Amino acid sequence: MTHHNDTSIARPQDLRPLTSLRFFAAMWVVAFHFWPNLQPMRPDFVAKGYLGVELFFVLSGFILSHVYLESFKAKRFGYRDFIWARLARIYPMHVAIIAGLGLLIGALALAGIHAGDKLIIWSSLPAHLTLTQAWGLAPHGGWNHPSWSISAEWFAYLTFPAFATVAVALWARPFVAVGLAVVLLGTLYTVFQLFAGFPLTEATMFWGALRIVPCFALGCAMWLVWRSRRISSVQITLVMAAVGLVGLIATVLLHGPDLVSVLFCAILILGLGLAARAGSSVLSQGWLVYLGEVSFAIYMICIPWQLVYVEGLQRVAHVNPDAMPVWLWAGLVSGVIPAAMVLHHLVELPARHYMRLLKFSKYRPPSALHTPID
Length: 374
Description:
Elements: H1 16-34, H2 44-47, H3 51-73, H4 79-110, H5 125-129, H6 148-158, H7 160-169, H8 174-196, H9 208-227, H10 234-253, H11 258-277, H12 286-317, H13 326-357
């Protein structure tokens, strides 16, 4: 692959509904983590909040294909530029959260509050700093647990040329690509469950890097369908998005297989992407798009925010952290959004901008199309 100044590749269309969708995926994960502070038992939909990560993974494959596959096919893809852009997207926030957690735990310890026994695990720190904690290299976990999915994303970024090579080979056969991705999804889910004894959708520090593979591949395949322009009617695309959303909710509530939920996630993403291209304004309002842009910070700050909020209530008001009053729990959930906004503007955006000033070439993909994770 050649180093390039890729000015000849047209700017990909800004798929605003998919940016907005990231906010809902992030808040689904937040509800999953925060619900035990309200009551021990989670409702079915909240209990499946870990599938918000699968939604992010499929979306990541779709969006990175949208931004980079044309240049990859034209042999104008710069791997160094790609990796640096992806690192700029996820690493500054990740390191800032680790540093912040260390300072927070230290401050709490000085105040006589010992909250870091399960967070400050020094043996896991090298893996966290190298984004390899979800590769089985941080078996004791610790630090900011949701960052395991950022490690999984990093694995997908490093291996993106392999995904792209397969996608380009199936460029003119998008539905074959989708079929093969579904087969991969079903095979990995079945085989992993047999050997590991638990679902791949529940893998984090162990096998988290594998967890992203079938979802990312499915997202790449769905983008091939998107670019094929086989579906152009606004009505049909909106029906497709509705089928994906309703199917996802129904599958979760009826305790259906996670594999089926992931397929509905993919249909939802494809439907919204097609709707945007067809001219629909669904989920394209500016405030929703902004919340989608902040979603990475929401995802990354949720556990530190939970620690600060819960420990503060225990210390000041002696509130039971496992049975909060509803109004206090609502403050926990809603408070994560302004906390994330602050982090987004003070850390994420400036650090990303600075790192991109050090880019290897002049090519930079549209920032609105970058995905978090997650």
